[in-house]
Amino acid sequence: MALPVDRGEELDLEQIEIELLLEGIHRRYGYDFRDYAPASLRRRVRRRMDGEKVETISALQNLLLHDPAVMERLLLDLSVNVTAMFRDPSFFLAFREKVVAALRTYPFSRLWVAGCSTGEEVYSLAILLAEEGLGDRVRIYATDINQAVVDRARLGVFPLDKMQEYTQNYIRAGGKRSFSEYYVARYDGAKFARELVDGVVFAQHNLVSDAAFNEFNAITCRNVMIYFAPPLQERVHRLFYESLAMFGVLALGQKETVRFSPFDRAYEDLDAEERLYRKIR
Ligand SMILES: C[S@@+](CC[C@H](N)C(=O)[O-])C[C@H]1O[C@@H](n2cnc3c(N)ncnc32)[C@H](O)[C@@H]1O
Questions:
Q1: 2 Cα to the center of ligand 1, angstroms
Q2: What's the pLDDT score for residue 5?
Q3: Is the CB of 118 under 6 A from ligand 1?
Q4: Cα(14)–Cα(130) distance, rounded to whole angstroms?
Q5: Distance separating the N- and C-terminal Cα atoms of the chain
Q6: 87: closest CA among 61, 56, 134, 120?
Q7: Is ligand 1 within 6 A of the CB of residue 276?
Q8: Span 64-85, mean pLDDT?
Q9: Are 147 and 118 in contact (CB under 8 A)?
Q10: pLDDT one-digit tens code per residue, 136-190
């Protein structure tokens, strides 16, 4: 006799399948998405099911375990790489004013851009630091879980049709020159000046499973932790806390906060609105 399946049971079943899928990915490929925020995870898994033309998560799991190319595609879906140059210009304005002032006090300092996606944020910060005369004094480390986007970040070629929007962002972010001085238009996009990122270290790094790898005077991580469930957010806060030098700055942007995390008391506000924090203990 066929047992009736109601909507609630379907969702429960989907939950079981997702958990098994994530467990399988972790064991087979080492990527740990088990503590990512469930709603966004579900949407992206469904999108990959459509892409692979399979009806169930279990069928996707079967494909995925046997074919690393499917894993690569799911990784692209899961890692949500949406980004822009001088995204949220007010953040860069505050960074220019407050974080730059802090970095100026060191003869040499290190800035970690965690979850750098295709590099738009890295080039924005490199431009800002160059304009503030710190280009040679701040070493940027740009990392992301996804090797494909890190490779693209290194190239520094961004869509030409975005340049108008980015120019507006740049101006609102307190840009001091003409934005078009920084790139040349080519058939495949706007190629940004190589010198901007000569000193940048681009590397794959997984915030979920990799350890601290240096001591930083500033860390920026924007629009990344929103995809993580609270236990994972806590892990990443610990990683940042351990990676920051005393009086180092944690720059999270308007969507994320260190408040309500166990590290709340370790930081004072440098800019409450733009969520710039200074490590004080
Ligand atoms: C929406 S983008 C944000 C890019 C940029 N920070 C910005 O604000 O425009 C999120 C990035 O986080 C990366 N990411 C997701 N999970 C990660 C993890 N566990 N470790 C490192 N990066 C991760 C994704 O690959 C993606 O490139």
A1: 44
A2: 63
A3: no
A4: 50
A5: 64
A6: 120
A7: no
A8: 93
A9: no
A10: 999 999 999 999 999 999 999 999 999 999 999 999 999 999 999 999 999 889 9
Q: Are strands 244-251 and 138-144 parallel, antiparallel or unpaired?
A: unpaired
C-alpha 160 to ligand 1 mean position (Å): 23
For 250, the token pair is: 């944690």
Paired sense of beta strands 216-220 and 201-204, if any? unpaired
Q: Please name every residue paired with 211 in a beta bridge, in sequence order, or none if there are none.
A: none
Q: pLDDT band at 125, cuts 50/70/90? A: very high
For residue 3, give the amino acid letter. L
* Contact (Cβ atoms closer than 8 angstroms) between residue 25 and residue 57: no
- Calpha distance 237→247 (Å, rounded): 16
pLDDT tens, 175-233?
A: 999 999 999 999 889 999 999 999 999 999 999 999 999 999 999 999 999 999 999 99
Q: Which atom of ligand 1 is nearest to the CA of 228?
A: 16
Q: Which amino acid is at 169?
A: N
| 121 Cα–ligand 1 center, Å | 11
Alpha-carbon gap, residue 210 to 231, rounded angstroms = 16
